[in-house]
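Person: I have long wanted to understand how a fold can be written as tokens. Underneath my words sits a plain record pairing an amino acid chain with its backbone structure tokens. Those tokens are not coordinates but codes from a learned vocabulary of shapes. I should like you to check that the lines agree and flag anything odd. The protein I mean follows directly.
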Amino acid sequence: MLGAGTVQAASPGAATLTPDAQGKGKVTWSGSVSAGTADNGTTDDCFGADKKPDPTSGCDFFTLTVSTPAGFYNQFLGGVQFTVTGFAPFDLDLGIYRLNADGTHGEKAGSSGNLPGMDEITTVAQAEGKYIVALVPYAAPPLTPYTAVAGFNLKRANPTLPVLNHRLGAGPANYRASHDQYVSHSEPFIAMDPLNHNHLVAGSKMYESLPKYFFKAGTYESFDGGKTWKDWGQLPGYCQDVGQCDPNDDAHYRVVSDIITAFDDEGNAYTNTLDAPGGATGTGWNQTLHIKQPGKPWSQPIVVHDNRNNPISQQLLLDDKNFLAVDNVTHVDGSPNKPHDGKIGTMYVCWGLDGATAPTQQIVLMRSLDGGHTWGGEVPGDNTPIQLSQKQAISGIGCHVIIGPQGEVYVTWYDNQVDAMMQVKSTDHGATFTPARPVVMISGVNSQFEGQSFRNLSIPTTGIDSQGNIYIVSTSQDGNGNPVLAGMSAERIKEIRDGWRAEAEAAGAQSTGSDIVLFKSTDGGQTYQGPVRVNQDPKTLNADQFQPWMAITPRGQLDIMYFDRRNDPNNWFIGEYLSRSNDGGKTFTDTRFDHQMWDPRINPPISPSGQFIGDYQGIVADDNVAIPFWNDTQAANLPASSKGHSQWQEVYAARIPNTQGAGGPCRDRKPPRSTLKRNGVKVTGKGFTVSGRSTDQGCKGLTAATSLKGGIQKVYVSVARVLRSGSGCRFLQANGKFGKARNCNHGVLLPASGTRKWKFTSKVKLKPGTYRFVARARDTHGNKEKPAKRRNRVVFQVR
């Protein structure tokens, strides 16, 4: 038994890892955690104020020395993978730190914080030198054992990133939004002003320390559709006390996170963020809101939810993975909400209300009825959120709010214990919600990819079109998924998920990788269909697509952006793609929009659960253009002497026009064609008839979904009596009489009956003379036919 002041040590307590000629090699060790001051904490809590292993923490420690030949990593991708197992059903978290010569820990090099019972796995890229490995008992009783392996996990770097980008060639123009002093940017989000679609407001994390994972949230603004950006820097109001903006002050630094941007229909922009006024290492995270009126700076923070208003909530609760939505369809009283009417609809914020000292998590929601100035659950200003989930412990993460065409509210989130998307609905502007229920299941991608270190999470993005059809999009291994049938138990959902995982493991290299999947409901969320595989790379290609986000245009086009590795045969470097559907999610067309692929290993922030490139990205779209907004390290591909060079994650926008070549619908600009022959004109003593045929080809797109069928809307006939001496024509009017003389090219069009096969009949008796009959059709897309000799125009002599 460990005595006071004894550092818990693994067996063996240290080892040296060296590669063989094939780049292989591993070391193993085992140990257990004990009771201590770091229970339910982070691996940072395993160390004392002197930055040395704390003997009272209860953590377990292992020292690893990695020794490789000079230039070893020039030929490989990857590094040293750490795997910790054998502690299920409990939860240990893993932290890997540089080890200084004086026995203190240096910067964090890697970490893993998976769910209870799941192995902890991470890779330290290009590992070299001395490390100290710490295991903290996040949710584990004393003497919980584990076994661990550290081994080289490498693949040949063929091609290298410069060679790969040279082969691919440059993609579309990417417009950098971040131009500030911060060392990295991630979790970008973007909103489009409904009054001016060229006006965009976006936000992201802005880092001040990557190894400490210290950052605040800031914004960017564009007035030309994302081509140029004003970087406004970090939001105001979070440096009120000493140390809150000092990244060297671990106890007081104020973290501001997870920025979401939105617009109302009066021109006001909003941000919703998480806020830790108690310091980055404390608890009591809050929710805040900022308002930006047109032409004015951001307001000071408005508290949405306060976890520090009493000692109990300050100790136990924190807010995480928030989302903001504004009802621009209906006013708070249910009446229609129109632009410039001076009314702001109900505002909704949902989030995961987490237990900071115990593994609990509920999905909750609060509302504002006065444009974001006052927030409450059932009662304005009550600081008691409405609980949407009903599970006793872990309910899920990544909630998303959408507003339907009648003001109905849907909240969807990911239950990562059963791999299901949960959903609730409100038809009374959020006053009450239906019970939470699983609606679709996936095979979640919630751990780091093989050989890489950035974390993943299959949180949903949702949307609703003008017809009320609901769409749920997420990442799923091999594109697996199913709707959840009524009465299906959580145990049955888990059985299906485990079956998919077993199949994926058996498939090995034959896997399609992480795919983007879509589910659709046409009955208000009662039932769902799917999944549809969104990314259209070959299923035989083991390439990962992840971190999707969706926008739906006014005409119902689905625009889904995501990170994509299909163009790298090593499935390592990352690009970005946009998938568009013009048939309600039945089929998709892909368009690359990254300018160059990029390396996620370049200076990533180190979060408690691994390297960090974000949990989501952003996109807005209208019927003319889609504007993705994301973070990457493409600026590191530039020469160091280049003005645009950056060694950090920066945020970018792209403009992908809604054209046929970019997955948009084809534009039918060809007029229809009518055929009128001489024998189609019949003149008798009782009147005359004109008959013929009309056709319309529509237009052929890249896919059936982007093609438009031809269609004749109406056919018109003009009847002109040609006057002698070239003095013009007199056209038959709707009243059955011929009008005054006019230019023969300015005919009077009279409607025929029928479309493809048509006829015009008149009881007007034609006097002797020369007549010109012209048939002109209009197609279903508004194109109008012009007269053409020997096709739709006949000159007829009446004697």
Observations:
- The chain has three helices and 50 strands.
